[in-house]
Every structure is written in structure tokens, then in C-alpha cells.
Amino acid sequence: MLTHVTSFAAMVHVTSLAGLPANALAESNAAIAACDAVVLVAPSPIAKYAGGLGSAVGAVVEAAARVDSALEGKSAPLVLPAPGVPGGRLVLAPMGPLSEDVDDVRSVAEAAAAGFARAVDAGASRPLLVVRAPVGAAPRFARAVEVGALAALGSQWTPLEAREAEMAPRSAESVAVLGLSEARAREIAAIEVGRALCRDITGTEPERMAPRRVAEMCEAAFARTGVLVKIERNVDDYPLISAVSRASRVVERHRPCVVRLDYRPRGEIRRTVLLAGKGVTYDTGGVDLKTDGHMAGMSRDKGGAGAVAGLVRAAAALGLEGVRIVGLLGLVRNSIGEESYVSDEIIRSRAGVRVRIGNTDAEGRLILADLLALGRELAMSGAADPIVFSVATLTGHVYRAHGPYTGAIGNSAARPELDRLDVLAERWGEPMERVRPRREDYAFVAPRSSAEDVVSSNRLASVNTPRGHQFPFAFLDIASGLKGGALPFIHLDIGGVGVESADWQFGRPTGIPIPSLTAYLSGES
After folding, report:
1. 146: CB partners within 8 A, 6+ apart
2. pLDDT at 69 over 80
3. DSSP state, 208?
4. Interatomic CA distance for residues 506 and 211, integer angstroms
5. Which residue has the higher pLDDT, 307 or 13?
6. 3-class secondary structure per residue, 351-370
7. Is 290 a catalytic residue?
8. How far apart are CA 364 and CA 494, in angstroms?
9. In this structure, are residues 173 and 213 in contact, taking their beta carbons and an 8 Å threshold?
10. Taking residues 85-97, what's their average pLDDT?
11. Is 69 exposed, middle or buried (0-12, 13-18, 19+ CB in 10 A)?
């Protein structure tokens, strides 16, 4: 089966051209003839994996492999003249043998993105993507074609600022993917719609994407989707969010808001998923000011809100059944000024918990705590089988501890759900590192006097604090009022994966963990 995918920023249109065999390149076919390049993503021996694609492809690959041994390892994409191949171009994107236990489907994503971008650079507008998974591949390669298709689409996203200035580089008009079923094509299209929204929110500079402009983008993105969008511009009911935003209120465009995105499908609702997303549109650190150049890139501290908004948008595009999804976005600028909140303040959270502020640069957990308290209220008001998530670029420690992996932590009630999500994340190329909450985490945030119920943080940066991305879970658990209840709660720290190469200033936003969570919500096992 050949699937034709067209992507323009946040709009993705998919038309499935069914009925084509796996060796369709060997046959004369109008859909293939409309393509103007073939991108072959394959492990080594690459000549073997080109088999079945027709003599034109096979001859070119065999000739190239004879003269370039680098093609048997992981190497940069290579553009080859290929008579008889659509467009006369064959782009080889070798992945190496992929025979080690530690190899995973991220190799497919990396090669597909690089190969597809190289085809466009070579002048192609309608490349055909062919992904070959290793023979006898482990289950972690089960979604290799889908992951490759997402990577190809994602490679064509360009920043919103460039698009609005009409300075975006040329991109592909369409993507054709060999071997993608019609159902999977729809899912990929839906995921890409959500990831594009996530990238636009996460990656756009802090004035263009100030708090209420994020809310405006959500209103536009969810128009005619059936998703209810509620914008709360008065955040007095969220005391911790209100405190973080105090210094920003003197500037109209920097004022805070809370956005609620409510997706309710028709029919019976069997599950309720409530997600809190940290949306700090710029993080100066507040009075505990970020210094030594560490403020650059802090416009990306809204990646959690971007991921939650993108996930709800993907679910709406896919039309998921049986699950209600509520996305809660806390959109705030952590500014510095006469009204700044400061360390040592004691503030009651939405859940009524007295929080002593330890460091104003630990603002994200305050935002999440109030959102999670709202999530708990919604869950306790008759929601069907509820579970609560928080998603945030919360700590630098998660990257120091785990590198390019999401840090996942949950309470005991959420352990079976976290088990399933862990498997899906590996399959969709977004692997996680899991940790457990420990007694030391709760001891770390325990009250030091009768004046407070919990302490938000210590005085040091998270990267210099043992268990620096684990103990915030304990704070969230307590300050939100979740602790001691039976409600499943999972926290995902995407501080190391929200942008590529952990380059917060210039890295391309990834859209993690939208594909994994979409699979989770759709019931994939």
C-alpha cells in the first residue's frame, strides 16, 4: 500500500492509495510516477534491503555499495542519479546494521528525517519514502514505517516567525510512504497536526507567543474541531499561578491566563485523561535571576503546554472514541520587577496547601500544582475512570540524569498505566527513563516549621541537587492535594527532549511525547 501525505505547517491532508504491493516500485504505477525522488531508509547490508524495489533501484544501490563501504554503516544521506526511478533521484539513508540490543527505532527517525530533507534540498517536491526495518526486528521496530513517516513530515516544519515573514525555506509539497495502511495514514496525519501546533507554541519567540497570544492560537487551532476552549484571564482562583505572574501584570501582553481544552467524543466515555501543561512563555528565573547566559532559550519553557495542546489537537483530528481528554495550560511569564514573588513567601495553593517558596526559578511546579488541583477536582466530580498527567520542561536535572530521554515518574496507582506507556514510548521512538518516588523525595520538601505544609524547593539549581527531577514529584503530589488519594498520577519531565539536542535556544521542537500519548489514548497495547 502506498500512502500519499501532504503537509503544510499545521495542516496535514492524507489520501491513501490502497492496493499497491510492497514491491510497487518494480511496477508501472501512476501514483509512483507522480513522485520525483525515492528516499530509501534501510539497515545494512543496504543492497539486500533494496531487493524487491525493482531493478532500477537495485542496480543503483548495488553499484554504490561496491564503491562506497561507508554505506554499510550509519552515514549521511547520499543522492544518486537513478535512471528509471521517479525523478531520476535515489536518496540513500543508511542506518547501519541495527543488530545491537541497544539499537531502537530512533535510528529510523533520524535517517528518514535526514534523507527526506536531503531529497528536498536536491530539488524534489514529492519524494517517496521507503522504510526497511531489520529482518526479524524486535518489537521496538514494529512502528518503523510510521515513525519514519512522522520524521519525514517533521523535517518540513519551519518556525512560525519565518512563515509569517514569508522567509520560510522551500519545503516538500507531499510525502508518499510505501507500506503505510490507510488507518495508519490517518493516525500519522492527526499526530502531525498536533505536533505542528506543539512546535509553533513551543518554538516561537516570547513576544509573538506571550501568554494570551498562546491562548489566541489555541482558539484558532481548535475552531470547528468540537473541542471546547475556555480561557480564564483572571487567575485569582489559582494562587500559585497568580504569585508567579505578579511581576508580569504591568505589561498587558504578558498577563497570565489558564486555558482549558475539553475534548468529549460522542458516545460512551469510558476513560477521562486530565493533563496539566507548564506554559512559561519566558522564564527569567524571577528574583532568583538566571545568570551566566542561562536565560537564552527560556522562551521554550512552554513546551509542556505545547505538548498538551498538541495532544488534544491530535486526538480531535483522529476522532478518538471513548475517552474524554482535558488539557489544562498554565500560561505565565516569570518576570522580575517590584511585584515579583520572592523566596520565603508562604502561599496557599488551589488545594489549600501552604507552600513556602524556596526559589523563584522553581516556578513550573507551582503552576502545575494549581492545574493538578483543578484536575483532581474534575476527576472527583464523577469523571469516568480518571487519570492525571503533568507534562513540563521542568528541570535541567532530568537531562543531567538521563540525557535525551523523558523522565517518567508516577504514584503506585498509576504503575500499570506507566508500564503500558513505557512500552508504547519505546515503540514510537520516544523512550523514557522511569524512576520511583522515594521517601527521600518527600523528606526533601517536608515543612521546616509549623508555618508551612510543604517547601517548593531548595536554593540550588536542580542540576546541582541530588534527585533534582524526582523530588518535584513529591511537591506536586502534596501541593495539588493528590497525595493519599487513589487517583493515578503520572509526571513527565521533558526538559531533556522538548527540543532537539537539548539546545533550548536553537533546537527544533520535537513534539515529544505526542505520538506515544496518542497511542496510549487510542488503546494501543
Report:
1. 180, 184, 187, 188, 428
2. yes
3. T
4. 21
5. 307
6. CCCEEECCCCCCCHHHHHHH
7. yes
8. 12
9. no
10. 96
11. exposed
Mean pLDDT of 63-83: 94
Q: Which of 106, 290, 434, 483 is catalytic?
A: 290
Higher-confidence position of 310 and 29: 310
Residue that has been written with the C-alpha cell 501514483 in this structure = 31
pLDDT band at 108 (very low <50, low <70, confident <90, very high): very high
247: Cβ–Cβ under 8 A, 6 or more apart, which residues? 286, 335, 336, 337, 338, 339, 340, 341
Give the per-residue pLDDT at 19.
Answer: 45
- Nearest one of 89, 79, 86 to 31, comparing CA atoms: 86
Q: Which amino acid, residue 186?
A: R
Cis before 45 (ω within 30): yes
| pLDDT tens digits, one per residue of 156-190 | 999 999 999 999 999 999 888 998 888 888 899 89
User: Residue 475 half-sphere exposure, CB side, CA atoms within 13 Å?
Assistant: 31
Instruction: Say whether 299 sits in a helix, a strand or coil.
Output: helix
Answer for the pair 421, 499: CB distance below 8 angstroms, yes or no: no
Task: Check whether 27 has a pLDDT greater than 60.
Answer: no
Helix H or strand E segment including 343: none
Can you give the pLDDT at residue 28? 54
Q: Cis peptide before 513, with omega less than 30 degrees from 0?
A: yes
Mean of the per-residue pLDDT values of the chain: 93
CA 171 remoteness from chain centre = 22
- What's residue 25's pLDDT? 60
pLDDT single digits (tens) 206-222: 999 999 999 999 999 99
For residue 276, list its beta bridge partners: 328, 390
Quote the pTM value. Answer: 0.95
Question: Could you give the CA distance from residue 501 to residue 84 in angstroms, rounded to a whole number?
Answer: 38
The catalytic residue among 365, 427, 467, 508 is 365
Q: Is 224 a catalytic residue?
A: no
Residue 155 carries which side chain, given as an amino acid letter? S
Interval 234-243 mean pLDDT = 98
b/e 179-209 (16+ beta carbons within 10 angstroms → b): bbeeebbbbbbbbbbbbbbbbbbbbbebebb
* Nine-digit cell string for 174: 507531499
Q: Which cell numbers hold the place of 396? A: 535541567
Contact 228, 218 (CB under 8 A): no
Instruction: Return the DSSP state at 105.
Output: T
- At 345 the pLDDT is 98
What phi, psi does 296 have (nearest 5°)? -60, 135
Q: Which domains does the chain have, with CATH numbers?
A: 2-180 (3.40.220.10), 193-392+454-492 (3.40.630.10)
Per the structure block, which three cell numbers stand in for 505? 535556544
Contact in structure between 149 and 59 (CB atoms under 8 Å):
no
